[in-house]
Design goal:
Radius of gyration: 24 Å
Strand content: under 5%
Largest sheet: none
CATH superfamily: MetI-like
Shape: globular
Protein name: ABC transporter permease
Number of helices: 13
Domain ABC transmembrane type-1: 95-319
Subcellular location: Cell membrane
CATH topology: MetI-like fold
InterPro entries: BPD_transp_1_N (IPR045621), MetI-like (IPR000515), MetI-like_sf (IPR035906)
Order of helices and strands: HHHHHHHHHHHHH
Organism: Leifsonia tongyongensis
Structural class: mainly alpha
Length: 328
């Protein structure tokens, strides 16, 4: 198992290095001028030339890339051309909101996906009334679900807020749910959860169906296996057979899909954050693209890409723990 973990760690590091190279090359071929974005369109040509020299943009591209990597290792992502603040500071400000949104959405996706899979595989009575609407909602694009949710649950019913986080992240983690729970402030915890509920569900529905379909197919295949029938013929309780023999041998494909969907959720959070005015890195990225703020774009892309790589590495390790044959 240790060798397997080290191999996956090495692969993750290589993938992240490749990602940094791709990000840097995209910046090199970008038609936008980041210096003008930093100084403003009214800056004189001499000021632009001096700033390019100061930022090292006139150096050979290999030297620029090595400088980029060196700063990256030190946690220095440069100064945002738009906010004029360190990109790392901006990410520390905006990232907790995105992490909280995606983690809550991921929990929703896992719960809904498992219910979808188990209810379908075991043919629970009335489960079609749950799975049918979920399938219909999963077909709609997230922006349409978001707009529909705002119209129904905010404008018409007044049950849920339509924007914002519901408070300021002043605690140690920057996660409102965690910080308010640690401080015992249940009123603020409830308000934060209300603000999270609608965007998290919008983000969770499509991944829930993807996870649920894969897990259901795996469960149905395992339920037909001979060793499961043998366990049932020995008189073991159905719940024991399902938990001990069926679920563990079926969870691998579901875990793999969950890892992929977690990465997709971080990638798709930009649209959801804009619609719900969620103060996360999705909104930060959307504001940085029109002004060619490459360092900010690179920082967000690198963070999201690294999360995707690490999440899939963790999933591979969990799969190997569930099925030791995979790390052979």
């Amino acid at each position: 198992m240790t060798r397997f973990i080290l191999r996956r760690l090495g692969s993750a590091i290589i993938l992240i290095l490749v990602l940094t190279a791709i990000i840097f090359l995209l910046q090199a071929v970008s038609p936008g001028d980041p210096v003008k974005a930093y100084l403003g369109n009214n800056a004189s040509p001499s000021a632009v030339a001096a700033e390019r020299q100061k930022l090292g943009l006139n150096d050979p591209i290999i030297l620029q890339y090595l400088h980029f990597l060196g700063n990256l290792v030190q946690g220095n992502l440069g100064i945002s051309y738009r906010t004029h603040r360190p990109v790392m500071s901006d990410l520390q400000t905006y990232l907790p909101a995105t992490v909280e949104l995606v983690l809550v959405a991921f929990v929703f996706a896992l719960v809904l996906g498992i219910l979808f899979a188990v209810s379908g595989a075991l043919r629970w009575k009335g489960s079609a009334y749950f799975r049918g609407p979920l399938l219909v909602l999963a077909v709609a694009p997230p922006f349409l679900l978001a707009l529909g949710g705002i119209v129904v649950f905010y404008s018409q019913l007044g049950w849920l807020p339509a924007s914002g986080r519901g408070g300021n992240a002043g605690g140690p983690t920057g996660l409102l749910l965690v910080d308010n729970l640690l401080s015992g402030n249940l009123a603020e915890f409830g308000a934060a959860f209300q603000h999270l509920l609608m965007p998290a569900l919008v983000l969770a529905i499509a991944p829930a169906i993807a996870i649920g379909r894969i897990l259901r197919s795996s469960l149905e295949t395992t339920l037909m296996a001979e060793y499961v029938r043998t366990a049932e013929s020995k008189g073991l309780r159905s719940i024991t057979v399902f938990g001990k023999h069926v679920l563990r041998n079926s969870v691998g494909p579901g875990l793999s899909m969950a890892g992929l969907q977690l990465g997709f959720m971080f990638a798709g959070v930009v649209v959801v954050e804009q619609i719900f005015s969620w103060p996360g890195i999705g909104n930060y990225l959307a504001s940085s693209i029109p002004v060619s703020d490459f360092l900010a774009i690179a920082g967000v892309t690198l963070v999201l890409g690294s999360i995707y790589v690490v999440a899939n590495a963790i999933v591979d390790v969990l799969q190997a723990m569930a099925d030791p044959r995979l790390n052979a």
